Amino acid sequence: MSAPSLTPTKTDPARRTLPRRAGPPPSRDRFTRSLRRNLTAHAFLIGAVVCFAVFSWYPMVREFGLAFQKTESGHTRWVGLDNLTTVVNDPAFWQAWRNTALFTVLALVFGFAAPFVAALVINEFRHGQAYLRLLVYLPVMLPPVASVLLFKYLYDPGYGLLNEVLRFLHLPEQQWLQDADLSMLSVVIAATWMNMGGAALIYLAALQNIPGELYEAAELDGAGLLRKIWYVTIPQTRLILSLMLLMQIVATMQVFVEPFLLTGGAGPEGSTTTVVYLIYQYAFNFNNYGAAAALGLLLLVLLAGFSGAYARLSRADDE
């Protein structure tokens, strides 16, 4: 047997491996593939960001500038706090804030409790819940103008349905929208009916996530309906209730549509003049955009401060 050769064999030139070209870094390649794969999602996201920037963020930034500017004869100049002084010295300023606070309080009494009670009632039904959910949400689907026309018919002092009921019961008729003492309450009732559907469905979803064992344990302890609501339902839905309370306050402080359509905005003796309606007057009736922006900035600071304090108290309560 011959010994193996110790001389190195020549490599076939055709089989030689050529050096690899330097490619993009792996991280960059992964990013490119991910971007290409999610191109549609990024396109929708960019569109949403652009819409928010143009229709939400830019107006807010522009408002900060207008609040300290004044335009006269086509020339804009910085006036410092003059717009704020003009707004505060307006006799309608404090009345608008009082009316807004009154609307907020009444809306919390009626508009915060009514959806929760409606959700409790619907949750007790074992059949027909879908129909009841549609029924309670139907006012939200109606155009606000249609709902306002409906309540204008109900509140009409001559042939309105409410006064017809009062006449049938031999009770004195009321000037619902023409009486300064009743106009705000009438607006609150209409606003509650128009907007309670969404909150009622949110409460209903929260109620249906409560374990039934908790109610069974409460019944074994002899708890009645009210005690079950107080000790089981409210603690289990506390997070949703607190969030909806915050949203309700922020929304009612910006009320405009209902008093504007029902009472023309100001109402009898200015009883339904709200802060947002006063902003509308400054901007579109008086052409004083600086004063309108200054009042809007005050409302923004107030709501932002309230939201921040509420979030801080909620975090401290959770800890």
TrEMBL record:
InterPro entries: ABC_transporter_permease, MetI-like, MetI-like_sf
Stated name of the protein: Sugar ABC transporter permease
Membrane topology of this protein: Multi-pass membrane protein
Domain ABC transmembrane type-1: 97-310
Bias-annotated ranges (Polar residues): 1-10
Keyword entries, A-Z: Cell membrane, Membrane, Transmembrane, Transmembrane helix, Transport
Keyword Transmembrane: yes
Main location: membrane
Record's keyword annotation contains Kinase: no
Subcellular location: Cell membrane
One Gene Ontology term, aspect cellular component: plasma membrane
Domain of life: Bacteria
